[in-house]
Amino acid sequence: MHHLDLGLYRYQIEFTKKLLFEAEGRSLVDKMNRRITLIPRHSELKIFSGGLQSIALLTADNYRNIMKVMVFVVDDLLNKDLSEVYVKWNEMYLLSRQETFKESDLKNFQEAIEKWANLFIKLFGQFSNSDFKLPKLHSWVHHIVDTIREFGAINGYTTETYEALHKTYVKIPYRLS
């Protein structure tokens, strides 16, 4: 799931900031950040008191918290497409979290992916230095449904074990040397 949280969603946030800045300079970006800081506190929701200033430091859990509120943060900020890309993201993201898929679910999921991707590219195309030659975007749009068909739900894909082993067997000994 980090493919989405730390990959594609991060791009979406970064491109949103660029779009807002290009439209009206710093004022719209500041307005977005202010809206984030004004969200009432809740025990199940982490909100960032400084807005989205230091996006590079966010964890996947932070991005999942942002997903819960971004639709409301960008609503009527610039145009309908901006809030719609976040709505389509959330629809697609929720479908991706299913534990089991029937063929009809996979069809709906692929349609949701394509709707989000088309709007994402239309809205943010000018901000991609690589003309959207993003491996995560390509694999998500063109291969994830076939991967689910072959290997099952993506919730079970994790690198957690390997990350823990890397820390134990590579990082710690390296620091000791």
Cα separation of the termini: 34 Å
Q: Percent of residues in helical segments?
A: 55-70%
Largest sheet, described in full? none
Oligomeric state of the chains?
Answer: single chain
Would you give an account of this structure?
With 177 residues, the protein is mainly α. It has helices at residues 2-24, 26-37, 60-74, 80-96, 103-124, 135-151, 160-176. The chain has one domain (2-176). The protein contains 7 helices and no strands. α1 packs across α2 and α4 packs antiparallel against α5. The longest helix has 23 residues, at 2-24. The chain is globular, with a radius of gyration of 18 Å.
Summarize the structure.
With 177 residues, the chain is an all-alpha fold. 69% of the residues lie in helices and 0% in strands.
SSE blueprint:
Layout: H1 2-24, H2 26-37, H3 60-74, H4 80-96, H5 103-124, H6 135-151, H7 160-176
Helix pairs in contact: 1-2, 1-3, 2-3, 3-4, 4-5, 5-6
Looking at this protein, list some descriptive labels:
mainly alpha, 69% helix, 177 residues, 7 helices, globular
